[in-house]
């Protein structure tokens, strides 16, 4: 609140005779004598009447009466002072004196108490309806002592204005205002109390008045002298405005009849703070601060403070002025989730305000006008969080006339509040429900759908459930908890009766509905995830009463468990709250449109379940769980766990998991029935029912067979997986239940990653270190793993290798027969590469043999299966599996030969030179040089190196192949050189091969030896003559190719290239002549490149 140093102007003019003169102390006696009639009357007048009305009603008011009215006009409760000076709620603040943490000690209310109790309040004076004083802030190591002057005006037990010299700017009262206010509340007898200053002035004669004014001017001449002179001039002027008015203003005389009686709220600071929080975009805790402001509005409403609606109006105006709204609309982006939730709370608060059961018609009309104005703004957020951007293709994809979203006006966050303005509280049945604990009718026998009482005579309330619950929320919010509770009980009893009738109805038509295989959605709106949160409202209302009852019973006060409260005999509010939550969570409801609405469904469901988990279950609650579980299973279209459900109903996985864990210790069979029924996810099933078209109120998907517009599908599938995992854990050791759960998983879960997670979970549970492995659960784990392999065999999955390795590990734990089985059926589970490089390799590893404790015979059988698999894979995919097959078959001659033959058969068509060179090197390494040579020649046939590929990765393979041929003998070298000449056009590579071949004798020693003892091969004879000619030809062709596009920066590199070419030319007996002719040709052909040719002449003549 901006606390201004200037005093506020007087509210009204005073000019009447007063009481007798004198001043004295005000305040009641601290004795225990009965309160006087004067005090009783004065207190009632001070609470309800503006002082002007008192003056107008009575010609003369005795001074003692005035004193008591003035005395009782100051607030007596610290609760409101606390509310206006801290975010924290609760009247208990006043009793707390000790600091409970650094944050709390900084709250103005806490600091104000500390200042008061440390004696920092002084010079307290009450003049009429005005309180003043000084509050001293003690010195700190960093700040000097500060004395703040504080002034407070009040009227009818409310503080109407405050000023403080501290200059603090905030929504709430500063600590100094708190300290002075609490001083007056706690120590009224220590406050000097005077009548309004106008009364004192009236008692003075002319001389006294002149002396009073002159002394006042003298004491404060620097501040008031200009104003005093101005007023004197105006008073002396006959025609001045001041002389046209009877009387004069008095800032201490209290409120006029026309003044609104409300606590001081600095509107400017509220607007500035909200604007600041919004500008921070959710950072720096701004979202939390805005939520605290909303809580403050609720606190004001609960205390029936008119500033609640006033403050919410200010907040809403700033929200509507947020520039991001227009930006998001323009850019087509959605607002953040946290910001969206703030708008939801804003709409809910307006719903509470317009449903105030005691608001005046003109006030509601004003709110309606304001709400319609906001509602009509183009950027006003929609209720479902959608601005048409979350479904970009749906509208265009629909046939003409398939939907009416284009013509139907969008519901905004204010639409429900606008609609609620038409609701009223005048219904006599409703009035009886909320006002009378004993409102029953045991003679009422109307058993129709809309009967006013149930068979027990307890009242029912038939209204759209979210609307009815909004009434409950409004009653709670406006400080009518008992009335809210009575209405909540009537609503819940109505839901329970409706549930029973639905069960009977379905049982009577069950055969017909199941025969048709159809279902329907009977609830147009789901209660969980609804913008008005009806189930959450009922649950909170009943739980609050339940907790207070527990506290009452502990204090030896009988809890409210009587039949007249609308409860069964012995039933508690806690039990009713739990049953209400179970009914809401189990309701079959359609998944709403839009990302935000769907996320809200999940979020509200999880929030409600979290609240339920805080409740300790006893026998009475378990009885309720059993009752609701039976209805869920047998409730047909009214239950989310009915036998057949609508294709796009909200799944029950999260709720069923909670029911399963709650019921398991008490009724395992029922728990499994619930969980297994909930496992389904029909929105992903192509054969799911598409809806009952026979009745108009049934909701049917506009495009029944399209892929669902479920933005939260991944979260839903993860919840389905969690439910399955919970069942697997619980079923450990029970083969029958494990088999049932496995079947459910295989039938209902469609995501390979989730099935893989379940397989891993089952494996971990089955192989816990503190017990022997559970072989049944291990088999379930393996079966799930096999399903994952089949699902991901033909699709890309980045975790595929991890999945394959895990499956082999799992099969190893199950036993040797499992490993043999997956190898026998490998083609349905693995790619050839996976089967050889991972499966067969792991199976034949020493670690697997040791883990399985195999004897020699078992080892051989397993190895044979692995080798058979390897050969099959090599046949199917020789390019990727041949080398692995050769490796796996090394210890079996026949298998090895078979694998080698597969390589030879595939070499001419299906294998690349890289693969063939790799296998050839492997053959040389294993001691098969001739086979390596054979494969190398086959590889050379696939190779093609152009003139400029002097860094090609295959060069090393070519050099290796030539070295291998050279080491085997002249015939092998003679056979491979024509292949080299045909495949390699790169001059530098050919010259390297040529040089190496001339260093040693073929077949005698390794190519890399520097010494030789045999006869070297002649360059004038085959096969080296052919290689030499090819090399010279390659240099000539490469030279011409390079000169075609050469640039000056490559000239020096080109000269070096020619130098290497000359070395090769000179290896021929007439090489010098050939090179000279070659250079001359270059000079002639490229004479235009003068600089380059000059360099050539300088180097080569």
Automatic annotation (TrEMBL):
Keyword Metal-binding: yes
ZSWIM4-8 C-terminal domain sequence ranges: 915-1092
Keyword terms of this UniProt record: Metal-binding, Zinc, Zinc-finger
One Pfam family here: ZSWIM4-8_C
GO cellular component, one term: Cul2-RING ubiquitin ligase complex
Keyword field contains tRNA-binding: no
Highest taxon listed in the record's lineage: Eukaryota
One example GO MF annotation: zinc ion binding
Stretch list, region Disordered: 1-34
Record protein name field: ZSWIM4-8 C-terminal domain-containing protein
């Amino acid at each position: 609140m901006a606390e201004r140093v200037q005093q506020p102007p007087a509210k009204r003019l005073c000019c009447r005779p007063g009481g007798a003169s004198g001043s004295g102390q005000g305040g009641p006696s601290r004795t225990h004598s009965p309160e006087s009639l004067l005090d009783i009357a004065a207190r009632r007048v001070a609470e309800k009447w503006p002082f002007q009305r008192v003056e107008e009603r009575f010609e003369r008011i005795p001074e003692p009466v005035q004193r008591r009215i003035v005395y009782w006009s100051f607030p007596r409760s610290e609760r409101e002072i606390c509310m206006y000076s801290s975010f924290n709620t609760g009247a208990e603040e006043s009793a707390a004196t000790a600091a409970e943490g650094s944050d709390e000690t900084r709250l103005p209310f806490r600091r104000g108490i500390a200042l008061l109790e440390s004696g920092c309040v002084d010079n307290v004076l009450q003049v009429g309806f005005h309180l003043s004083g000084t509050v001293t802030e003690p010195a700190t190591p960093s700040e000097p002592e500060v004395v703040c002057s504080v002034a407070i005006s009040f009227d009818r037990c409310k503080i109407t204005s405050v000023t403080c010299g501290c200059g603090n700017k905030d929504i709430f009262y500063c600590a100094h205002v708190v300290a002075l206010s609490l001083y007056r509340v706690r120590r009224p007898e220590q406050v000097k109390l005077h009548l309004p200053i106008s009364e004192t002035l009236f008692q003075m004669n002319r001389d006294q008045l002149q002396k009073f004014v002159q002394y006042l001017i003298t004491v404060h001449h620097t501040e008031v002298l200009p104003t005093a002179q101005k007023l004197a001039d105006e008073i002396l002027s006959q025609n001045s405005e001041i002389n046209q008015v009877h009387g004069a203003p008095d800032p201490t005389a209290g409120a006029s009849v026309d003044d609104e009686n409300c606590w001081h709220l600095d509107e400017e600071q509220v607007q500035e703070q909200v604007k600041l929080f919004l500008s921070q975009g959710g950072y720096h805790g701004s979202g939390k601060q805005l939520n605290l402001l909303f809580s403050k509005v609720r606190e004001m409403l609960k205390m029936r403070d008119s500033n609640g609606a006033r403050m919410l109006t200010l907040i809403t105006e700033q929200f509507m002025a947020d520039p991001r709204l227009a930006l998001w609309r323009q850019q087509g982006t959605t607002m953040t989730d946290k910001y969206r939730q703030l708008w939801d709370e804003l709409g809910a608060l307006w719903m509470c305000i317009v449903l105030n059961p005691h608001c005046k018609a003109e006030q509601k009309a004003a709110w309606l006008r304001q709400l319609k104005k906001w509602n009509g703004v183009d950027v006003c957020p929609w209720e479902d969080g959608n601005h048409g951007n979350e479904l970009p293709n749906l509208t265009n994809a629909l046939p003409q006339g398939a939907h009416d979203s284009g013509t139907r006006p969008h519901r905004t966050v204010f639409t429900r509040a606008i609609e609620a303005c038409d609701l009223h509280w005048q219904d006599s049945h409703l009035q009886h429900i909320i006002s009378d604990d004993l409102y029953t009718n045991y003679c009422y026998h109307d058993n129709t759908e809309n009967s006013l009482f149930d068979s027990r005579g307890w009242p029912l309330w038939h209204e759209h459930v979210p609307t009815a619950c909004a009434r409950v929320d409004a009653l709670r919010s406006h400080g009518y908890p008992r009335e809210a509770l009575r209405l909540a009980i009537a609503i819940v009893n109505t839901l329970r009766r409706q549930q029973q009738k639905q069960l009977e109805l379905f049982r009577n038509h069950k055969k017909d509905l199941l025969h048709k295989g159809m279902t329907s959605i009977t609830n147009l709106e789901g209660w969980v995830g609804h913008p008005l949160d009806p189930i959450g409202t009922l649950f909170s209302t009943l739980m609050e009463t339940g907790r207070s009852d527990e506290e009452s019973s502990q204090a030896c006060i009988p809890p409210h468990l009587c039949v007249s409260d609308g409860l069964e005999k012995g039933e508690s509010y806690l039990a009713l709250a739990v049953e209400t939550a179970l009914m809401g969570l189990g309701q079959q409801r359609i998944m709403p449109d839009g990302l935000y609405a769907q996320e809200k469904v999940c979020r509200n469901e999880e929030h409600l379940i979290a609240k339920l988990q805080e409740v300790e279950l006893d026998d009475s609650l378990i009885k309720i769980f059993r009752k609701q579980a039976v209805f869920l299973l047998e409730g047909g279209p009214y239950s989310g766990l009915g036998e057949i459900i609508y294709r796009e109903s909200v799944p029950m996985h999260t709720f069923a998991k909670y029911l399963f864990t709650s019921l398991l210790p008490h009724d395992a069979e029922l728990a499994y029935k619930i969980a297994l029924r909930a496992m389904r996810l029909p929105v992903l099933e192509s054969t799911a029912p598409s809806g009952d078209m026979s009745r108009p109120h049934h909701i049917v998907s506009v495009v029944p067979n399209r892929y669902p517009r479920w933005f939260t599908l991944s979260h839903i599938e993860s919840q389905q997986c969690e439910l399955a995992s919970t069942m697997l854990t619980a079923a450990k050791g029970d083969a029958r239940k494990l088999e049932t759960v496995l079947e459910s998983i295989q039938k209902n879960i469609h995501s390979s990653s989730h099935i893989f997670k379940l397989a891993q979970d089952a494996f971990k549970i089955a192989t816990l270190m503190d017990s022997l492995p559970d072989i049944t659960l291990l088999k379930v784990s393996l079966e799930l793993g096999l399903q994952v392999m089949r699902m991901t065999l033909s699709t890309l999955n980045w975790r595929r290798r991890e999945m394959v390795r895990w499956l082999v590990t799992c099969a190893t734990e199950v036993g040797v027969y499992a490993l043999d089985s997956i190898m026998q059926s490998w083609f349905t589970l693995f790619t050839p590469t996976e089967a050889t490089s991972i499966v067969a390799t792991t199976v034949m590893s020493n670690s697997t043999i040791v883990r399985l404790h195999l004897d020699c015979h078992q080892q051989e059988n397993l190895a044979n299966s692995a080798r058979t698999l390897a050969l099959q894979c090599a046949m199917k995919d020789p390019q990727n599996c041949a080398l692995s097959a050769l490796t796996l078959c090394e210890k079996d001659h026949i298998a090895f030969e078979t694998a080698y033959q597969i390589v030879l058969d595939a070499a001419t068509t299906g294998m690349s030179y890289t693969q063939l060179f790799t296998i050839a090197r492997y053959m040389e390494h294993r001691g098969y040089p001739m086979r390596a040579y054979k494969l190398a020649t086959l590889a050379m046939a696939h190779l093609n190196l152009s003139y400029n590929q002097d860094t090609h990765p295959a060069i090393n393979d070519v050099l290796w192949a030539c070295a291998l041929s050279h080491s085997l003998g002249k015939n092998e070298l003679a056979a491979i050189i024509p292949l080299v000449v045909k495949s390699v056009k790169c001059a530098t590579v050919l010259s390297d091969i040529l040089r190496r071949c001339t260093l040693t004798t073929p077949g005698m020693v390794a190519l890399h030896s520097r010494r030789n003892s045999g006869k070297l091969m002649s360059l004038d004879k085959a096969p080296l003559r052919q290689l030499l000619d090819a090399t010279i030809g390659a240099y000539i062709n490469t030279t011409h190719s390079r000169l075609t596009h050469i640039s000056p920066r490559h000239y020096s590199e080109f000269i070096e290239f020619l130098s290497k070419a000359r070395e090769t030319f000179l290896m021929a007996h007439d090489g010098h002549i050939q090179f000279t002719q070659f250079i001359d040709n270059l000079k002639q052909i490229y004479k235009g490149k003068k600089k380059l040719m000059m360099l050539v002449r300088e180097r080569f003549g």
